[in-house]
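Supplementary notes for students who missed Thursday's class. We covered one full example, reproduced here. Read the sequence, then the structure, then the short commentary at the end.
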Amino acid sequence: MSTLIVDYGMGNLRSVQKAFEHLGVPAIISSDPRTIAQAERVVLPGVGAFRDAIEALRQHDLINVLRDHIAADRPFLGICLGLQLLFDRSLEDGEHEGLGIIPGTVQRFQLPPDYKIPHMGWNQVDLCLSPTAASVDQMGHPAAGLTPVQALFAGLDVSGIVTEPTAASGDSPATPGPGHQDVSPQPALKPWFYFVHSYHCVPNDQTWVAATTNYGGPFVSVVGRGNVMATQFHPEKSQASGLRLLKNFVALSSHPVDAPAA
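Structure (token representation):
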């Protein structure tokens, strides 16, 4: 089995599946722990409240199977709430325990008065990577020798092949919400992605941070270590940039260059 999207009742599952289908990649949706345990690549999307999400994972008996998949360092991609669930705890509507993969907390934005919550719209991602992260081979695939999180963004940063979002259809809004950065008409060297969130992640270990985004100040928008990666933005809503990222994810093997720290 290649790519599996976890169904725990709180994700825009069909949108994620359609994005993979657009790439010609079969991706099944399942809530069955045995099926998930057999998957080579797992995608954990999510929208909604942290408390409800972690409880839904418990009710579906998915906590251990997700931890086991990550511990085995098989390719894993968390999306939006799927990123936040990786952390020790969230302070959304109380204090709630997460999957405990990444030490740290999920906190509500504390922003200047002219910034609205939620952070909703297009914004740029500042990659904490060397220029080689953009390396692609002659076939347009991630070049050999990249770490998995570098490979995830191959062709997306300094190469400039993906610029600003254009008018979109369906569930990919084309303009930022009020109080958010306007989309520039000039070519960008940083990829644009679509965000919808009121909480952000604060890791204790900064080596997990793969990218940041500015919204009234910098916040963590991508984490990664070994084959475990997660984004605060929605690739499935992010047009060409998002499709490229998902294509790169599918190309990952289960043998990373940078294994997780012990």
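Commentary. The two ends are 28 Å apart (CA to CA). The domain at 3-250 is CATH 3.40.50.880 (Rossmann fold). If anything here is unclear, bring it to office hours.
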